[in-house]
Design a protein that fits this description.
The protein is an alpha/beta fold and about 325 residues long. The chain has helices spanning about 25-35, 50-55, 75-80, 85-95, 105-110, 150-160, 180-190, 205-210, 230-235, 250, 265-275, 280-295, 300-315; strands at about 40-45, 60-65, 95-100, 115, 140-145, 170-175, 195-200, 215-220, 240-245, 260, 325-329. Strands 7-6-5-8-9-10 form a six-stranded parallel β-sheet, sandwiched between helices. The protein is elongated and about 65 Å long.
Length: about 325
């Protein structure tokens, strides 16, 4: 078991290529590490600097938990002032071991001898939800940040394709009030959007968002390093339809928990939604399969088991030894 003895908030920032570390922040980290006699620093992202330097100065090993995919994240590269390869080399050099949140991320960083794949987890109890399907109004949701890179234009095209042939399908867009969302609202006011699109108000909780859907989509144009919304939908017994792109094929079993279609093939998405629209029992069956897959592979107990194995294998802690103190950022 691992316990949190104390939580401290320090004023650290992301690293930037060529920028000197903040010595004051590094000193604060050193004080924390020494005062608690820390044995291991687990950095929960690949974009920090001072924690690594403090750990090195204290001769403490560092595990970096990578959730980013620089190769397909232009905004991240611009923020860090470095290209994907520069980021990859820096993260590897700054860490003793790596934990990747998907095999896709592990493949990019290409350091198999120091990397363990540990998929994200979800709270199964919170997402233990019934999928109530009304065959006369089957709700298909895109739950996203409402940015163009999330495939919102594909979502509109999909609704266009199916509004006449399958009027029982209702397409619900759920997310914050971005400028793109405002553009869609103006188009809807001018009757320029398909009638089967609903622009839902933003909700704070995942459960509230997923409760509005019978089927969940992911149409992202960038490669996601994991796909948490898809995992949450599966945990809530919602079949998913998404592009075979990024890490999503690691989550979705085609034809069993949902459908994977070629990248940006909106027509293929439409064909698979037709199958679900014409057989509401299939929505139920796939939803149950999805829930079982999450229970077997992405539960919190499974996550803890793999994480413990990571620590044991990385640092050769004896199984019968006392729990280590971990300082995770």
């Amino acid at each position: 078991l691992f316990y949190c003895y104390e939580a401290q908030v320090l004023p650290y920032d992301w690293w930037h290529f060529g920028q000197e570390p903040d010595q004051g922040v590094k000193k604060q980290f050193i004080q924390v590490l020494k005062s608690w006699q820390i044995d291991l620093v687990h950095v929960n992202t690949s974009v920090l600097l001072e924690p690594h330097l403090a750990a090195r100065e204290c001769d403490i090993p560092v595990v970096v938990h990578i959730r980013e995919l620089p190769e397909h994240d232009k905004a991240l590269c611009e923020t860090l002032g470095a290209g994907p390869e520069e980021i990859r080399k820096k993260v590897i050099a700054d860490s003793d071991k790596l934990i990747a949140n998907s095999q896709l991320v592990a493949n990019f960083f290409a350091a198999p001898n120091k990397t363990q794949v540990l998929a994200n987890t979800v709270d199964l109890s919170v997402l233990d939800m019934v999928n109530q399907v009304d065959p006369s109004c089957i709700k298909v949701a895109l739950i996203s940040s409402n940015l163009p890179k999330k495939g919102l234009s594909d979502f509109v095209d999909l609704a266009h394709l199916l509004q006449e042939s399958h009027p029982t399908l209702q397409f619900i867009l759920i997310g914050p009030n971005t400028s793109y969302r405002q553009t869609l609202e103006r188009q809807q006011e001018n009757n320029e959007l398909p009638k089967n699109i609903v622009l839902s108000d933003y909700v704070l909780s995942t459960q509230e968002a997923i409760a509005q859907a019978n089927i969940v989509l992911n149409l992202s144009h960038f490669q996601e390093s994991f796909g948490r919304t898809i995992l949450e939908a599966m945990a809530a017994r919602r079949p998913v339809v998404c592009y075979a792109w990024g890490a999503l094929p690691e989550l979705v079993v085609h034809g069993e928990t949902g459908y994977l279609v070629p990248f940006q093939d909106v027509k293929a998405c439409a064909e698979h939604l037709k199958l679900l629209a014409e057989d509401s029992d299939l929505i139920y069956i796939m939803g149950e399969n999805a829930r079982k897959r999450v229970e077997s592979n992405y539960s919190f107990s499974h996550f803890k088991k793999i994480l413990d194995a990571c620590y044991q294998s990385f640092f050769e802690f004896e199984a019968e030894s006392m729990p280590i103190d971990a300082f995770s950022l």
